[in-house]
Structures are given as structure tokens and as C-alpha cells.
Amino acid sequence: MWGESELALGPQGLAWIRFNRVAGKIELVIRPILTFEHPVLHQKARKVARVDTSIQRLLDDLAETMLDAPGAGLAANQIGVPLRVCVVKGDENQIWGLVNPAIVKTSGTQVGYEGCLSKPGWVGEVERHEAVVVKALNRHGKEVRIKSTGFTARAFQHELDHLDGILFTDRLTSLDTLHRVEDLIGEERYEAEAVAAASG
Ligand SMILES: [Zn+2]
């Protein structure tokens, strides 16, 4: 499904991968998403030594599984693969496929609710950097740097945390902010459902 994908240059000269999904023409590989009880989600994932076809296949599976969920990002250990690989949906619906990602620059703070595909139906308040620059290898093994702000920056930080075995519930501003979506009512419920639908 990445056959049509090419490394392209975005408006700021940033490398990004456009995701081409053609319904019915691609093999969908949707992997089960593990939940917080699974030990692999509490462990630091291993660095990838070489970006080969098995890593490209892993990125494909992650993208498919994220879109199916649906979600805003997904880390390899969430599907049981303890490697430093993840996908994040960008502002323009592109999908970033990242290998050995690291945050190299941060600025500002944002406080908001987030959820996790590995803890379905729950949301909690987490403070994150407002903007981050992530350095990673892309699916061709080339180094890319991605600038992001707001919601996308939050998604990058959430996924990179997963690769270090850190969960959003480890970063709550207060345990009192952890809610089950179905226990909320009215506007709060509506907002929590939107947050849960954009989890990573
Ligand atoms: Zn998550």
C-alpha cells in the first residue's frame, strides 16, 4: 500500500510521506492492539539496526491498524513488536512512519485531555510540550526532521512515550482527571468521545 508513496517535501521543506490508501486495492493487515495489562507496553522498545522490508511491512501494518481503530498514532509495541517504530497522523492527513524517533527540540506547554488505543474508553488530562521537533529515519532509512505543534505535537509525544514504556496515565496532571468516557454526561461526554476517537 506504500507503493505510491514517495518522499516529498512539504511547505516548510520538511520531509513527509503521503499515504495513499485505495480501498479494495490494498491488502489490509489489521493487528490486534494490546491493552495496558500487557508487559510489552511497560518496557523500553529496542532500537532498529537497519530499515529493511520487514520494518517497511511493520510501518504498513501500523498505519492500517491505526486507520482502522481509528486513531491518531500507534507505536509498534502496541501491536506486540518491541521496536522503536511508530506512525503518527499529520495535520494534512499524511501519515508519518518513524523509525528510531527522538525529540530534539521542544517549546511551550499545552494541557489537555488525551486517550490511548491501548486503554479504550478512558481519557485523562496530560501536560505536553506545545511544539516539538522530532528526528527519525523514514521508511527508506533517510533522516527526517518533523516540526509539529498543538494536537500533532501531542500525538508525537504520546507515541514516543510508548516506545519508552511510558503511558499517558503515568503523566496525568492529577488522578482525578482520569475518566471513563461512558461515565461523563453532556458536553464533557461529547468532548471526551472526540478525544478518545483521536487517541494514539
Ligand atoms: Zn497510546
Characteristics:
single chain, 3 helices, three-stranded antiparallel sheet, alpha+beta, 200 residues, five-stranded antiparallel sheet, Peptide Deformylase
3D structure, described in words:
This protein is α+β, with helices and mostly antiparallel strands and 200 residues long. It has one domain: Peptide Deformylase (Alpha-Beta Complex), CATH 3.90.45. It has helices spanning 53-68, 150-163, 186-197; strands at residues 7-9, 15-17, 73-75, 85-89, 95-107, 110-115, 122-128, 131-137, 143-149, 179-180. The strands form three sheets. A five-stranded antiparallel β-sheet has the order 3-4-5-8-9. The protein has a three-stranded antiparallel β-sheet with strand order 6-7-10. A two-stranded antiparallel ribbon has the order 1-2. A hairpin with a 5-residue loop joins strand 1 (7-9) and strand 2. It is globular and about 50 Å long. Zinc ion is lined by residues 116-118, 158, 162, 200.
Summarize the structure.
By secondary structure, the chain is an alpha+beta fold. It has three helices and ten strands, in the order ββαβββββββαβα. The strands form three sheets. A five-stranded antiparallel β-sheet has the order 3-4-5-8-9. A three-stranded antiparallel β-sheet has the order 6-7-10.
**Mean pLDDT over the full residue set:** 87
Helices and strands, in N-to-C order? EEHEEEEEEEHEH
Biggest sheet details: 5 strands, antiparallel
Can you list the strand order of the major beta sheet?
3-4-5-8-9
Q: How are the secondary structure elements laid out?
A:
Elements: E1 7-9, E2 15-17, H1 53-68, E3 73-75, E4 85-89, E5 95-107, E6 110-115, E7 122-128, E8 131-137, E9 143-149, H2 150-163, E10 179-180, H3 186-197
Antiparallel strand pairs: 1-2, 3-4, 4-5, 5-8, 6-7, 7-10, 8-9
This protein binds zinc ion.
Zinc ion binds next to α2.
